[in-house]
TrEMBL record:
It catalyses: a quaternary ammonium(out) + ATP + H2O = a quaternary ammonium(in) + ADP + phosphate + H(+). SUPFAM superfamilies: P-loop containing nucleoside triphosphate hydrolases (SSF52540). This is Carnitine transport ATP-binding protein OpuCA. Gene3D superfamilies: P-loop containing nucleotide triphosphate hydrolases. One of its GO terms (molecular function) is ATP hydrolysis activity. SMART domains: AAA.
Amino acid sequence: MLKLENISKQYHSKVVLENINLEIESGEIVSLLGQSGSGKTTLLNIILGLTKMDNGRILFNDQDLTNVKMKDRGFNIVFQDYALFPHLTAYENIIYGLKNKRGSVSEAELQEYIDFLELKPHLQKKIGELSGGQKQRVALARTLVMKPKILLLDEPLSALDGVIKESIKERIKSIAKEFQLTTIIVTHDPEEALTLSDKILIIDQGNISQFGTPQEIIHHPKNEFVKEFILKQLQIKRQNIFQLFGEQYA
Ligand code: ADP
């Protein structure tokens, strides 16, 4: 279990996160959902260990990670732009991080990840020869072979559209299930959060507006912000939500 206790952060005396408390169970997919500038990326980077918090504690399976460096936390992130090396092949990108971490993943496991993400036909291609969805799968494979204790994804669907977006969504769900991997996703899109996550943390200006399952948030929005923010977006995408959550939102 990942536990965040009273996490606060200011930049130049501007409060960006205020007393964030959160518990995430093993194998859960949790989205951090909010408008631009609400503090989602800052919270993701604090969990990763990239950004220092001002106050608070982070515990993972009862171990206090508050002062543990990023590289020693064992959490890995897929950045929004994938951050793949363009001069290397897909395969070279996937194994890149293993250079300094020999023995962490066996050859059989490596093949399992490649098969799972259906990357075999693309291994020898350069990054520029891959589609957006293929690049995202390479980025996921490169991260998974590091055997992260927690998978962090920053806007994983924002560069994708239509069918590809749906297929990556399903892929993320099956990774969390297959590998019992706790997954934390930053998104500004309520529909993505509602259809992808077990639980959603809605952040408004650095404060938790609501934390709950998609059903709880849809049927019992805790305050006006949640109602406005979620429902406005849902009205734009009526059809999908109608199928998912029933008539009253269509
Ligand atoms: P989100 O991911 O929800 O768009 P961020 O966490 O990136 O929001 O940013 C939250 C607030 O913190 C914004 O007002 C942003 O300008 C500010 N901020 C983020 N990173 C820095 C930084 N390194 N220095 C100063 N201000 C920052």
